[in-house]
Specification:
The complex is a heterodimer of chains A (238) and B (468). Chain A is built from 7 helices and 10 strands. Chain A is α/β, with parallel strands linked by helices. Chain A has one domain: 3-Layer(aba) Sandwich (Rossmann fold). In chain A, the strands form 2 sheets. Chain A has a 6-stranded mixed sheet, with helices on both faces. A 4-stranded antiparallel sheet of chain A has the order 2-1-4-5, with helices on one face. In chain A, strand 1 (13-24) and strand 2 (27-39) form a beta hairpin. In chain A, helix 3 (111-121) packs across helix 4, helix 4 (126-139) packs across helix 5 and helix 5 (155-167) runs parallel beside helix 6 (185-202). Chain A is globular, with a radius of gyration of 18 Å. Chain B is of the alpha+beta class. Chain B is 53% helix and 16% strand. Classes of the chains: A alpha/beta (238), B alpha+beta (468). Chain A binds chain B through residues 60, 63, 65-66, 85-86, 89-94, 96, 98, 100, 102, 104, 106-109, 113, 116-118, 120-122, 165, 169, and chain B through 1, 6, 9-10, 12-13, 360-361, 363-374, 460-462, 465.
């Protein structure tokens, strides 16, 4: 298990000998093999690798929406494998934010309601909730669309809403699976810039998967993964 | 943002499918309510008819109900006037009572000897003024207006007969009974082809002429009524038939003879102290039966314990009523179950489609931290909203359909009624039926969503997010 420096801030994610195998009919397909990884707090971490290398599986495990077959996983100081399903749901609601490739906004809710939804899960008081939503929408530059439905927004605007939604409960960690894959390069760059800005301003860790070399260049830490194994980790000063 | 608001918005996502489901629910609700209203109208019509004729409760001599009709003279209530006084002045019963009246039922043979015909009958002796008040009882505002009995204002020897009695006794002419060919005409038609019989000898014909009674005037209908008196001896009264009235049921119509109470008492008891075979109690409302019956039983055990008496309610006296109510309840229940099953599968299918279409959304919500129970609640709330809207719309449409039927001018002949009455569907005012149907539909809708909701809640998050 990688040693933790007692002087340094606690890692937001610690993976020790994590393995994940999918059972497809009679065939076992190893997705991750003996992964040791630490995600530093307040860092912009990119996981990169070819298709099928295990990026999404790694993000799913970090995001506590999937369980490893083997190994130890600690997220935000919590050994998440020991939590019940309900406790894990509560944990995700308070400590994790998700940004999806297809935005995954709730189409029947307005922009502000989409951002408000995770706050309802944390039972935040109404007044505080409204204030938090307004601040976030202002921060991601979409305040003027607060009453619009997602269907009335462009892809870039939707992803801004998704970023605001992910940041709403003040999570320790935001996970994004190829967040710019469905955006043009200009919009994608703007979204990456926004995420970077929010990460720095709100002191939150971002972990996302991407193939984009520009994104890799922007990251504090870059994790290269291939065939379910970590090939290389490049860490820069945060 | 509340769960129900979110449920409503989700239902509006696929308006056509939600509308189709709602229409199925509305049709179901309308079917149940309109049939229920129709059945309710029939049972209330029956009840009203029975209560008009025989009241809600009858005080009878013990075992009269089982054996007394064969020997009414032996099962009379000797001090029936005391019974009436006690009941009428009882502080508990008095506010509930509409009419308290004595009655006599007797069996006998009615004959039109001038025509040489007779038949067995069931006679009813009644107090005309009381019966007229009983015929005005209409607690459910039904379109029944029977008016006063034909015995009103008549002499003591007047009687009313069923049209069947009039037909058999060949009184159709003077009583102006429609659709009633004379027996002789019929026999003449049947015997036209038969060979003529030999003529009777002249001396026999002369003897028969001497024995023949003087004929009543052509426009007057008279019958002779023979009944056994309290000592078993035959007693005969010559009675003036004022009217023939259809009695609803053919069996009853063929035997009914209604007369003044005093006349019936004279037939049964002669010059002895008159009795009654029952004291009839008509209450203001049918719902008062249990309370009134309980109080009567108290009185029979205390103040009126001098005679062995018992109380019968109209359902016991008229078993057909209970059978009709039971039959309609069974049909209603069968229809409700059938429609419930249709709604169950319709809503279940709608919710299953919704779960399938929103699989990615389910994954997203779970990833964001919504518990499995939250997912279940989400879909069950949608079914609840769908059920509530469908039930409410169903009740409203049923009320409209009922109004249209009630104002369409249709008529029908209810069982036990002599004349056609307006066809009526009783939905408005039947609060229990309306709320029961609505609540049942909502419940079925929620139950139908349980399985799809459970399936949604148990999805693996990563599988749900991968769903295309």
């Amino acid at each position: 298990m990688p040693a933790q420096n007692p002087e340094a801030p606690m890692n937001v994610v610690t993976m020790n000998q994590i393995s994940k195998t999918y059972h497809l009919d009679a065939v076992d397909v190893p997705a991750l093999v003996d992964i040791d990884l630490e995600i530093r707090p307040n860092c912009f971490t990119v996981i990169s690798g070819p298709s099928g290398s295990g990026k999404t599986t790694l993000l799913n495990l970090i995001g506590c929406i999937d369980q490893p077959n083997r190994g130890e996983l600690v997220v935000a100081g919590e050994a998440v494998q020991k939590l019940s399903d309900d406790a894990l749901s509560d944990f995700r609601a308070r400590h994790l934010g998700f940004i999806f490739q297809n935005f995954n906004l709730l189409p029947v809710l307005t922009v502000e309601e989409n951002v408000e939804y995770p706050l309802l899960l944390t039972r935040m008081a109404a007044a505080e909730r409204k204030q938090r939503v307004a601040t976030l929408l202002e921060a991601v530059g979409i305040a003027d669309k607060a009453r619009n439905l997602p269907g009335q927004l462009s892809g870039g605007q939707r992803q801004r809403v998704a970023i605001a939604r992910a940041l709403a409960p003040s999570p320790n960690l935001v996970l994004a699976d190829e967040p710019t894959a469905n955006l043009d390069s200009h919009t994608g760059a703007a979204i990456i810039a926004l995420m970077r800005t929010m990460q720095r301003e709100l002191h939150v860790s971002f972990v996302f998967s991407s193939h984009d070399p520009k994104v890799m260049a922007e990251a504090d830490d870059a994790v290269m993964i291939r065939d379910g194994r970590i090939e290389n980790i490049v860490r820069r000063a945060a | 943002m509340r769960t129900l608001s979110l449920a409503l918005r989700n239902l509006l996502r696929n308006r056509r499918r939600s509308l189709t489901t709602l229409i199925a629910m509305v049709i179901g609700a309308v079917t149940i309510l309109v049939f229920g209203g129709y059945a309710r109208n029939i049972t209330l019509s029956l009840q009203t008819g029975y209560v008009m004729r025989g009241g809600h409760l009858q005080i009878q001599r013990k075992d009269y109900f089982l054996y007394g009709t064969g020997n009414p003279a032996a099962y009379g209530i000797a001090d029936y006037q005391d019974v009436i006084d006690v009941v009428s002045h009882d502080p508990v019963l008095a506010p509930m009572l509409a009419v308290v009246t004595p009655t006599i039922s007797l069996g006998g043979i009615a004959g039109n000897y001038a025509a040489g015909v007779s038949r067995t009958i069931i006679g009813t002796g009644l107090v005309v003024a009381d019966r007229n008040r009983m015929r005005r009882w209409n607690d459910y505002d039904l379109p029944f207006h029977p008016g006063d009995t034909a015995l009103t204002g008549t002499a003591e020897d007047a009687v009313v007969v069923g049209t069947g009695v009039a037909r058999v006794l060949e009184l159709c002419g003077p009583l102006k009974v429609p659709n009633c060919p004379g027996r002789k005409q019929t026999e003449a038609a049947q015997g036209a082809a038969a060979p003529a019989g030999a003529a009777a000898p002249a001396d026999v014909t002369a003897l028969a002429a001497l024995e023949a009674r003087p004929k009543a005037p052509q426009n007057e209908a008279r019958i002779e009524l023979l009944a056994a008196n309290v000592h078993g001896a035959p007693n005969v009264a010559s009675l003036h038939v004022v009217k023939a009235e259809h009695q609803g049921f053919k069996e009853f119509d063929d035997m009914f003879v209604g007369m003044h109470l005093a006349q019936a008492q004279r037939l049964l008891y002669g010059n002895e102290k008159p009795q009654a075979t029952a004291v009839v109690l008509q209450l203001h409302h049918t719902s008062q039966i249990p309370a009134a019956k309980a109080r009567l039983e108290q009185l029979l055990a205390t103040t009126l314990k001098g005679e062995p008496l018992e109380v019968q309610d109209f359902e016991a006296l008229n078993p057909f009523y209970g059978q009709a109510v039971g039959m309609f309840a069974a049909i209603f229940g069968f229809m409700a179950v059938l429609i419930g099953a249709i709604v169950l599968f319709t809503v279940g299918n709608t919710m299953s489609m919704a779960v399938m279409e929103r699989t990615t959304e389910i994954g997203t919500l779970r990833a964001m931290g919504l518990r499995r129970s939250g997912i279940r609640r989400l879909f069950m709330s949608e079914a609840l909203v769908l059920g509530a809207i469908g039930a409410a719309a169903g009740v409203v449409v049923a009320l409209i359909v009922a109004w249209l039927v009630n104002h369409a001018g249709l008529t029908w002949l209810p069982p036990g009624q002599a004349d056609p009455v307006p066809l009526s569907v009783r939905v408005w005012g039947e609060t229990r039926m309306m709320f029961g149907t609505a609540a049942g539909l909502v419940l079925v809708a929620v139950i139908s969503a349980w399985w799809p909701a459970r399936r949604a809640a148990r999805m693996l998050i990563v599988d749900a997010l991968r769903h295309v």
